[in-house]
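ESCALATION

Customer reports they have been waiting on this structure for their group meeting. Please prioritize. Original submission:
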Amino acid sequence: MHYPRKSADLFRRILCAFRPPPDISVSEWAETYRYIPEGAAEPGRWRNSRTPHLVGIMDALSDSSVSTVVAMLASQTGKSEFLLNTIGRYAHVSPAPILMLRPTQDDARTFSKERIAPMISATPELKDRFGSPKTRDGDNTILNKKFPGGFLSIVGSNAPSGLASRPIKLLLADEVDRYEASAGTEGDPISLAEKRLTTFWDRKMALVSSPGDAETSRIEPAYKTTTMERWNLPCPKCGEYQPLEWSGLIYKDLSAPVYRCRVCGETSEEYEWKGGTGRWIAEFPERKDRGFHASSLISFFIDWPELVKEWLFASSESKKGNNEPLKVFINTRLGETWTQPGQQVEEDEVTKRKEPYVYRKPDGSYIPCEVPDGVLLLTAGVDVQDNRFEVEVVGWGPEWESWGIEYRVIMGNPSTQEAWDALDEYLLRRWRYGDGTELGIAGAAIDSGDGGHTSDVYRFTKPRESRHIFAIKGQGGVGVPMVARATQNTRNRATLFVLGVDEIKGKILSDLKRTEPGAGYCHFPLSADLDDAHRRGYTDTYFKGLVSERRVFKYNKGYKKYEWIKESGVRNEPIDCRAYARGIVAIINPNFYRLQKLREKQRGMRGANAPITVAPVAKRKKKSRGSKGISI
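Update from on-call: job pushed to the front of the queue and completed.
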């Protein structure tokens, strides 16, 4: 008797559902069933030999005697892949409720669409278990996928409702050092998710991440409570096992670095070390929870010359005062936490950077100018007080190099129209280069605050959004980006951008420590005439306010978090205004290459009879919202 194709497929799936599952580990399942989808670097069948260090981690996740697995891994070591294999094995072999926790809800959607869905489509056994992604019965959505005997939910750490739902047996928490300090107002997201495990006696939890700052890291403290295993490779010369550390790498020949054995002292090439049979060696083998740590030195997906190139660049930038590339290298390549240097800047470190703003004429002589030639864009940050506005106009060049142009206090009650008219007039002002070219303000960020002038700010910014004048509100917290999101208030639909003030202020203080002009360096005006410097507003009071805050770490529900502490008796409006002026640059997202070409063209026209041109303020793209900014 012949059945239609759909009926045959249905019976096959039913039989598969009742077939006793094979008792295999995650690594065995991956080697037997997993397929890498087309479009990946190495599509086709999964091979454990490409990532031998993942075998021990995967098998720990299917070991009934282990309840918690912690993996503190560098990038290019397969963090996400072994989690995908774990999802596949449990959905196919040991069905259970599974929760995957990602840093944000948007990140959860992206990971589901770009990583989980392709794995399911490429692996026949999973394709049979999960429903079609085109069904509309709610069993297979982007964030919730049902299979016989269980389900998979993918949730962001910032979505408290998703963390307090149904019980789960398996919790996979990925990139935990990028999580919010609290899921809304409900507390630590990992603790919330962990409570959902309590009903299962054979529950299992995996915490996975490249580490972040030492003071706020979740993964490092968790790792230190485990067996603390490191991936060891045998020396090609003497055979002694050892973890590969950056200090052992010798790169006199940048194209062919070698690694020196810490036992016999002999050096061997990259292929010799990586060709050895590695193994995990525990510092505390008696502990129940398993923990794993490895750097990118062991990875088959990035070679040592590339790592050396990244290290040399990060080191050179660090010597200039820019620690960001070094932090990224230590976190993502070495898989180690970053210890922040001192977060407070001394006032005299900044004031000694004052310099004359001058313009060199064609005859070689110099004249004072309002705007130095390196400036390509002007922005303003506005702080609203009960009886005044405090405004800083800042000039910007490529890679966040900045010039303080003017700090102005505009007296007036923000509840009156006269005060806002005075502010508007100031924001329409032009500043001159030495060759006579004028430059206007390309954008301004005005703090809407939590006080009594929020509605006044909205009424002012709404009709001026075409000039890139926006209401902003600061939001603290680890991991909040420079521009977190854009919303609209319900009354007059004015755009409100949320700025990550911890991120911005941290970068400002880091830039204030730079000692060489260039990327990130902060310039401040100095004139032979002291009155001119005071006219610009860069007085001792300004610099005291600019360095009035320091970053400290406090515990919140068991986890460390950043907090900015203001020096007693000192006004902090200057650091706030500078933060807003920097935030509006991220919002409008300028094309500095195009602006530089325009400035070069203007300089070519300079001379006694050169026309005065005004740098254009670009029109805002229609309905452009969010953290990507508004390109100009």
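Sent to customer with the following note: Residues 588 and 630 are 4 Å apart (CA to CA).
Escalation resolved.
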